[in-house]
Design brief:
Elements (H helix, E strand, L loop, with lengths): L2 E5 L22 E11 L4 E11 L6 E7 L11 H8 L15 E3 L4 E2 L2 E2 L2 E3 L5 E10 L4 E11 L8 E3 L2 E4 L5 E2 L1 E3 L2 E3 L13 E11 L2 E5 L2 E2 L24 E12 L1
Length: 255
């Protein structure tokens, strides 16, 4: 029997954001990602490295980039997500244990050999990354960082039930910059999906007897063989001691 992990780069929904206040311009920012991650299904964590190329297609010079760190929405009772859940009379997260909560840490934003300064915001799931020099219109910058994710119990879209994993909104990603400026916003259970388009190459290393469903084209042709999708009831098999790395690529996709 195999175990399952669903890895999504994002979902699409309709939200009211700054972008709806003004007609859009004929330009759009682009973010291209390379991500390598490894699942620890004992501690329910992801250890990862991210490298992104941010292209400034706007007519404006940028001196900083807001990054969403949305796994931090599950860190404590004071986040916008936690308060929204409580307001909607869903107290499952409010009364959750520390082991059931989640977060993202081990961040160190760099460009080349230069460390980038970060500044806190009013939300722990948003960080301001100050660039080492202004990013002019038409220019690109490559930004890298390691990161670790403690995967919470399923309260919203990111989470796990035992060793079944639902991995979405899980990596550091720039907020949208559009004709209205920055659209930095905390994660909410109802509404968040406004992100840039770009390309992705995502590789995940995990025990061999997991099956992964994910956005994009899978480079491992045996991942979806019919016999690999057969189950044997509700029992959870032991994790294989053998590891595999599965890679997905996608181009010109939302988030």
């Amino acid at each position: 029997m195999h175990k399952y992990i669903v890895l999504t780069l994002g979902l699409l929904a309709f939200v009211h954001s700054k972008a709806q206040q003004t007609n859009q311009a004929n330009w759009q920012q682009r973010v291209d990602y390379v991500i390598d991650a490894q699942l620890n299904d004992t501690n329910h964590t992801l250890a990862a490295k991210l490298k992104l190329t941010y292209t400034n297609n706007s007519p404006n010079e940028l001196t900083f980039i807001y990054f969403h760190l949305w796994p931090n929405a599950y860190k404590n009772r004071n986040t916008a997500f936690a308060k929204q859940m409580e307001e909607n009379n869903d107290l499952s997260f409010y009364y959750s244990s520390s082991e059931e909560k989640g977060y993202i840490d081990n961040l160190n934003f760099t460009t080349g050999n230069t460390s980038l300064k970060t500044e806190e915001t009013n939300h722990i799931d948003i960080v301001k990354v100050v660039l080492d020099k202004p990013l002019k219109s038409g220019e690109k910058i490559e930004i890298s960082t390691p990161f670790n994710v403690k995967i919470p119990k399923v309260f919203s879209r990111l989470g796990h039930e035992n060793q079944d994993y639902f991995i979405t909104q899980w990596y550091p990603k720039p907020a949208v910059y559009d004709v209205n400026g920055w659209n930095e916003m905390p994660y909410l259970n109802l509404g968040e999906f406004y992100s840039e388009f770009g390309s992705f190459k995502v590789s995940i290393t995990l025990p061999e007897n997991y099956v992964i469903a994910a956005t994009g084209e899978c480079s491992n042709p045996d991942e979806y063989k019919a016999d690999g999708l057969e189950g044997t009831g509700d029992s959870v098999p032991a994790s294989s001691k053998e590891l595999k790395t599965v890679t997905f690529t996608a181009d010109n996709v939302h988030d």
